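Reopening this one. Same input as before:
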Amino acid sequence: MSDEPAGVVFERSPAGTRSTSRVGRAVAADALREADPVGAAQAEREASWRTGYLPHFRRLVEAGLPSRRAAVGIAADGVAALRSRMTVVEQDTEQPLEDWVTSVSSTTWGTVEIAGTAGPEDRLSLPYRGRRLQGDELRARLDRWVEDGVIEPSAADAVREVLTHPEWLRMDGHTVAVLGAGAEMGPLQALLRWGATVAAVDLPRPAVWERLLATARTSAGTLLVPVSDGNGPAEQRAGADLVRQAPAVGDWVARLPGRLVLGNYVYADGADNVRVSVAVDALTTRLLADRDDLALAFLATPTDVFVVPREAVEHANRCYARRTATGRLLGRPLRAASGGRLLRRAYPAEGDLGINDSLVPQQGPNYALAKRLQRWRATIARDSGVVVSMNVAPPTRTRSVVKNRALAAAYAGAHRFGIEVFEPATSNVLMAALLVHDLHTGGGPAHAHPWQDEAYAAVHGGLWRTAYAPRSALGLAALLGYGAARG
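Same output, byte for byte:
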C-alpha cells in the first residue's frame, strides 16, 4: 500500500479501486432508503454520478419535507452511510474509521498562547465596499439587503441584536476552536479583533502560521495553537493534518479551557474535501462524547438545495412579474430554444413553501457531499439538544471560487439577476456576527422542522428570492460577466 494516500480514504470497491462516485451514489441511496425507496432505487441506478448527481441531492431534501422524523432520519442514515464507506490508511495498514478516531494517539502537542496587544473593538462594524459600516449606517444596509431580497429578515434581526449587545462580541467564557483557521470565510480574524479566545487548527504550513500568528499579535484576543516538540519558532512547529491526525487533534481540543465551540471551516479540492469533512465529523462525535458543553458551528454553502419560506417564494414571484420588457421579450425564445433550461421562473406561481435548487454542476458531487455531511451533522446535533450555529453564507469571491473561470464569470454577471456576490472581508465578519448571536441565544429560536433551522438567518445573496431558478440563469450570468471576470 506504499502508494496509498495516508489517513482517511474512500473504501475499496470489489474491483480494488477507490471510487468517489461509487461511494457518493451509495450514500445518497442509503440516506433515502427509508424515507423514499423509489428515490433510493433511482440513485442506485444513476449511471453517471459525476454529471447526474444533481436531482438526487435535491431529492435528499424533498424526501425530508413530510416530517421532522423523516428529515432527521435521512441525516442520520446519510452520515452513517458515508462514514461506513471511509477507512483509514496508516503505516501501510488499513482500519475502520470508527476504530481509528477513538484510538489513543501517540502524537501529542503542546500549546502556544499568543495574547494580542490591541484593545478590543467595542461595537460591531462591517467592512463593505471600501467603508466600515456601524450603528445606524449598518442598520440601514441591513434594511436595504432585506428589501432587495439579499438576506432573510431573520438574519437582519440577528445582526441587529448583536448591535444592541456589543458585549457579546468578546465571547467571554468561550473558546472557539476554528478548524480550517486560515480559511477566508472563517471567523478567526473577527473574533480576535473582538477580544475572544480562539484555538486554531490548520495544516502545518509555516506560511499559514506566520500570517495567523501575526494577526493574533496585533489583535485584542488570545490565540491558542497546537505545536510539536522542539525549540524552533512556533510558526515552524504549529499545525495538524486532520485527515491523518484527527485523534490527536481530538485529544488537544478536548483539553481546551472554557465553554467549547467547535467550528468547522475546512475545505479542500475534489475528493479531499470529502476526506477532511469525514475526518472532522468523526472528530466531532468523539468530542461530543468527551465534552458535555460542546457547541458546533458551520457555514452552509448557498449553492445547495434548501426549502425556503412562503415569503421568499412570494418575493421571487413578484420579481418575476416585474421583470423588464427586455427580459419578457427574450425569456420565451430562450426557454424554447434551450428546451426549458434557460430563465425558468424560480418557483410555481402558486404555492406555500419553495425548493431553491442552487446546486452548481461545476462544483461537483464531492463538494456537494462534503457540504451535505455538515448539514446532516447539524440536523442530528440539534435534534439531540446540542447548541448549533449553522447559517447559510452568501456567494463570496473567495480564492477557491474565482480560480474556476466559469464560476468567476457567473459571479461577475450575477448582479444582472438580482444576486449580490460578497467580498470575503464582508462575508466573514457578517457570518462571525451571526455565530456570536447564535452562541448567546442557545443556537437561535427552536423550530418544528429542520428546514426552518436552515432557513433561519440565511444570507443567501438573493439566490432564494431571485425571479429565475438560479441554475437556469447561471450560463447567461457567466456570458454577461466573462469580460468583467477577465479584468
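So the earlier flakiness isn't reproducible anymore. For the record, Residues 271-290 form the longest helix (20 residues).
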